[in-house]
Write a structure and sequence with these properties.
With 473 residues, the protein is α/β, with parallel strands linked by helices. 30% of the residues lie in helices and 26% in strands. Strand 8, helix 6 and strand 9 form a beta-alpha-beta unit. The longest helix is centred in the first third of the chain and has 25 residues.
Length: 473
């Protein structure tokens, strides 16, 4: 049996359900296929559960520091069962919200595994979707346009194949029922750094092993240095320029042992658990891409700036296209793809316009080019920098580490990059994103009136500092 739709979406994560909703808003008949739960990785195994647990860890850490605020607290402890209950409540509430949005927008949801089929009796071109439903039946969906949003999964390394007991993926780490006494985190990128912060704040002895020469290698170097300084203060051991020797990995009932090779020698490490956080792999296997002319490049589906594949009626959004593995990037791509399908003047996806956020307790937020990237691109730049320790609200909050850094083009005054590290800076990057989107100069963003006392004043001061006009420094 076949059923025609104007738009079919394969995958119900944030990219998929955003595409489905936007298509329905534009009057399209829409079907969405999801083999597990609506919401995908972000809702069930990524953004939301990690941030819920990070918040619990932050509250616990603040209790330990309460005396600095004149508050005497005793007898407090972490109850991981309650932490997990709270996390699961939040996830389930949002899951119900996504289900409601599907009904509200009259989107047909098919629960099952979807696979692309080539030209057939159902359609003269590739891209129809055969859905294996729970009861064993198969439904064939015939779309005018197809959007692939199949997401990604954790990557593993030789010798560090997760076993769910001693060697964990980030998915499995989210289900911890007890705080481990010690943990080795393989990877010092976003996921590894967030878990390091979370578990350190909860009382674990944490060691990070990062292959690159610094933490968060995709971020501005000054930011990486500041985060490493904070980790050191918090007792997190960081090994950079380090490679895990696969043959050294041993996991048993007692824990995990491994060797990490650095230029200075071999470090022998042992811990109760190891978490592998070395990136994510696109889910391109088993979905029938071989039945199409879609090009897979280094494991990701190749698309243009409107998310169109080599099959003009098929689009790919989110982690599966490898352009930027962030939830809000996936949502933006989804809207661009649907509006392109609808014949609208869609806003193309540009990596430099996507804000980035890392939810370590000393948070990181950024947009655009780093200072080094701007130099490597041949730009003549001006840089403004303002420290949070010079800000009244930071002193009040009790978190004065970090700074805001602004990189501009010296000839045009265009904003090239904004980089922040400090308390709650993920709440500030949206203003920088808007300034960039509206093509504001640093002077214009700095001249906007910012309320006092707020952390947002640091962004204004850094913008003014580009031309040496910061007031409070």
């Amino acid at each position: 049996m076949s059923k025609p739709y104007e738009v079919v979406v394969l995958g119900g994560g944030i990219g998929g359900y955003t595409a489905a909703i936007r298509a329905a808003q534009l009057g399209k008949t829409v079907a969405l296929v999801e083999k597990e739960k609506l919401g995908g990785t972000c809702l069930h195994r990524g953004c939301i559960p990690t941030k819920a647990m990070l918040r619990s860890a932050e509250v616990y850490a603040e209790f330990r520091e309460a005396a600095e605020f004149g508050i005497e607290a005793e007898g407090f402890q972490i109850n991981m069962g309650k932490v997990q209950e709270r996390k699961n409540r939040i996830v389930e509430q949002l899951h119900k919200g996504v289900q409601f949005l599907m009904k509200k927008n009259k989107i047909d949801v098919y629960s099952g595994m979807g696979r692309l089929i080539g030209p057939s009796i159902f359609s003269p071109r590739a891209g129809s979707v055969a859905v294996e439903l729970a009861g064993g039946e198969t439904e064939t969906l015939v779309p005018e346009h197809l959007i692939l949003a199949t997401g990604s999964r954790p990557r593993s390394l030789p010798g560090l194949v997760p076993d769910g007991k001693r060697i964990l993926t980030s998915d499995e780490a989210l289900e911890l029922q007890e705080v481990p006494k010690s943990v080795i985190i393989i990877g010092g990128g976003v996921i590894g750094s967030e878990f390091a912060s979370l578990l350190s704040d909860m009382g674990s002895e944490v060691t990070i092993v990062e292959f690159a020469d610094r933490l968060l290698p995709m971020e501005d170097k000054d930011v990486s240095v500041e985060l490493a300084r904070r980790f050191k203060k918090d007792g997190v051991k960081v090994l950079t320029g380090a490679r895990v020797l696969p043959e050294s990995v041993q996991a048993d009932g007692e824990g995990v042992k491994l060797s990490a090779e650095q230029a200075s020698g071999i470090a022998e490490l042992s811990a109760e658990l190891a978490i592998v956080a070395v990136g994510r792999v696109a889910n391109t296997e088993g979905i029938g891409l071989e039945n199409t002319d879609i090009v897979v490049d280094r494991g990701f589906i190749r698309t243009n700036e409107y998310m169109q594949t080599a099959e003009n009626h098929i689009y790919a959004v989110g982690d599966v296209n490898g352009r930027m593995q962030l939830a809000h990037a996936a949502a933006h791509q989804a809207i661009a793809a649907v509006e392109r399908i609808a014949g609208m003047e869609a806003h193309p996806f540009r990596v430099e316009e996507v804000p980035r956020a890392v939810y370590t307790r000393l948070q990181v937020a950024s947009l655009g080019l780093t200072e080094q990237e701007a130099k490597d691109a041949g730009r003549t730049i001006k840089v403004g920098k303002f420290p949070f320790k010079a800000l009244g609200k930071a002193l009040v909050q009790g978190e004065t580490a970090g700074f805001v850094k602004v990189v501009t083009d010296a000839a045009t005054n265009d904003l090239l990059g904004v980089h922040m590290v400090g308390g709650h800076v993920t709440e500030l990057i949206g203003e920088a994103s808007l300034a960039s989107f509206l093509n504001a100069t640093a002077w214009e963003a700095g001249q906007a009136i910012h309320p006092h006392p707020t952390l947002s004043e640091a962004l204004a001061e850094a913008m003014l500092a580009v031309d040496g006009n910061a007031i409070n420094m």
